[in-house]
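User: Hello, can you help with two protein structures?

Assistant: Certainly.
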Amino acid sequence: MRHNKKRGMKLGTDASHTKAMKKSLVQALFTHDRIKTLDQRAKAIRPEVDRIITWAKKGDLHSRRLAIAHLGDKELVREVFEKASQGMWADRNGGYTRIMKLGPRKGDAAEVVIIELVTEPVQKKAPKITVAKVEKVEEPKAEEPEAEAAEPATEEAAE
């Protein structure tokens, strides 16, 4: 029985073949930095690639052993960990892959894409500068001298 064995998309095959295909695609992506594959396969390996790069950024022994168990190639893991230690993804908090669509395949119209590792540094967004409208506040006017002159006249008349 397959209790609690689902890990991502099945991709139309049984579990062992899906696992082997994903492992092979991830190895090819780390080896060549860019591969051409089907859309669903690229979307299926993206979380695994991100997970391995996150382990590489962490850089400790446990993370290295997890990556070796996941990839199955010590030399490839060493290369990925070296790239991460040199700061290739230091300023990036996820989103280590890019998927670019190429269009449908001729034979069966399956969507073909290129998945690649992102190597460009993150460009921080410029802070939005908002200009607040400054309204002119009218100063309270001093009382007019005519009103002051009129008051004493009425006081004198009252006496």
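That covers the first. Now for the second protein you mentioned:
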Amino acid sequence: MTSPSSSPIQNGYANQHDLTWSRSEKAIARKAFDAALKRELHEVIQEAKQMASQMQEPSNLWELEHYLTERRKQIDRTYDYRYSQLTLVFGKLLCESRLGEEGLRGLRENKLKSIRSYAKFLAEMDAA
């Protein structure tokens, strides 16, 4: 359990619905989102190719199918490009090192604070 002082609500990410996105911030967010998604999908492709190249038994085909299904579900849960969700998405990607803060350069400080706060919260939850 987190202490009240480290509560994500108090740290600011709970107000993501109140954030407005300027045209330039939307462009930055789209670029960062697309780049992170592309990197993750590239990892999935590489892993699927490796699994396919090592297939020896028919059952391996279903293992590959299971892997792809699970990864698709994970990616679908993570990559939600609704503006009301982007600070959470970016916070998760930042926590998982799938996105660096340099990709978010140009966002207003209130958004960056919210993203960092959520990333820190997730890291603390993982460590607990």
